[in-house]
Write a structure and sequence with these properties.
Elements (H helix, E strand, L loop, with lengths): L2 H9 L2 H4 L4 H11 L15 E8 L2 E10 L4 E8 L15 H15 L6 H14 L13 E8 L10 H14 L3 E4 L1 H7 L1 H4 L10 E6 L2 E6 L4
Parallel strand pairs: 1-6, 3-4, 4-5
Antiparallel strand pairs: 1-2, 2-3, 6-7
């Protein structure tokens, strides 16, 4: 069964709909399959996605380091219960959606270029994983924070022109600092991965970061 079908079987089940911990179940799904949450050329350093990363006074759902030829980015990801509404009845963004987006901005505002916390995070990853053949790690470099919010489904606005325009405007307005995806958008961005039935070679692992040490949740595929 493909990862796409696994995800939909999960969120359409009666058990899920009646559950009080839906977001936690989705979180665990991505911990088991961390490559599905990455949308930026699928290269993360040091070959791992971080679950529940502390960011000063906050905790992000997921995070990963994406090195580029310029800056190295620390993506901070907020995932929400897929059954939450993006819009309310008067076609305005719901309070819960606005709260989730504000939370991502709060994380980013707590970080600064050259932040000692970011430098320490990257150095700790480099020190722990540099000699581990299951992980890749570039030389530590300054990290710049960028956010990602995954929320809701396109069906909520695709047939409503007012909602559709507001969604597009919101995505464009936020794009410099926060990438906003519906779950459909995440599936389309990572279509090849979601169509697979098994994790493929090079898929990152998933870890927790506490007290400057990383604990493996899901091994990378090597």
């Amino acid at each position: 069964m493909s990862f796409y079908n696994q995800f939909f079987d999960l969120i359409t089940s009666n058990e899920f709909r009646e559950s009080n911990n839906r977001e936690s179940q989705v979180h665990q799904f991505f911990e088991r399959n961390p490559e599905l949450i990455v949308t930026d050329n699928r290269y993360v350093s040091p070959g791992t996605v971080i679950s529940k990363l502390p960011v000063h006074n906050w905790v992000s759902d997921f995070a990963y380091i994406n090195p580029t030829s310029g800056f190295h980015y620390l993506f901070l990801i907020e995932i929400e219960d897929p059954l939450k509404n993006i819009f309310n009845r008067n076609d305005e963004f719901s309070q819960e959606f606005n709260h989730a987006l504000q939370q991502v901005h709060d994380w980013l505002r707590s970080l600064r270029f050259g932040d000692e916390y970011l430098s320490r995070l990257y150095q700790d990853a480099h020190d722990q994983f540099n000699n581990n053949p299951d992980f890749r790690c570039d030389s530590p470099a300054p990290l710049v924070g960028k956010g990602k919010l995954i929320y809701g489904f396109r069906a909520e606005f695709q047939d409503n022109p007012i909602r559709r325009e507001r969604w597009q405007q919101k995505k464009e307005a936020e794009s410099q600092h926060v990438d906003i995806f519906t779950y459909d958008g995440l599936f389309e961005k990572n279509r090849y991965l979601f169509q697979r039935e098994d994790r493929n070679f090079g898929s990152p692992g998933c870890v927790r970061y506490r007290q400057r040490r990383f604990t493996i949740i899901t091994d990378p595929v090597t």
